[in-house]
Amino acid sequence: MPAISSNKPYRIGRSRTGLGLFATKPIKKGTRIIRYFGPLLDCNKEEDDAIENKYLFQLTNRWTIDGAVRENIARYINHSCRPNAESDVKPIKRKVYIVAIKNIEAGEEINYDYGTDYFKEYIKPIGCLCVRCVKKRKEERAEARAEKQRLKARAERKARKEAEKRARENEKQAQKAKQNAQLKRKHAARKQLHGGYLNGPGPHKVHAVQRDLTVRARGGQGGQI
What is the pTM of this model? Predict the structure, then answer.
């Protein structure tokens, strides 16, 4: 790890992404914190254009700084989607400085936005680990869990309502079946009472009346003789 002068307002320390650069004293907004430097690569030269690493800082279409050298302390500054610093590019002088865009407290990690191209190529595939994105993903996971619970509760309510509806329908059917059974019993009892004929006397009653009339008739004849 490269040595840093004690009068510098930063130090290299452990970060959530590995190593990072942290303020050792308050840094005011607008302060030029550190220079991002390294060998200049001429993209018009095939050997320079063939160099690939994560510390390349493009100045113009032709010139790029290779910041992978050990002496470039600024390479330890991590990306953030909500940064407290930014890169100040001087294309004519072929220099880049990292400048505070807000007041930075001692102990706070220094970070800046690496830009859309770098983000898409290197950061997005593995997921951004800056405070803002970690917090956002945490909130999204919490919201996803809450939504899952809401859907589960909704499904349970729906299932309860359907079960209650089926129970009511079954109860209605049971009551209807009971009423039908009662009606059948009443009809059977009434049919038995009237000898199976609801509109008049049964045949056994008719025969009994006829026999009674015959006996009376015979008794009357005997009295006349």
Answer: 0.62
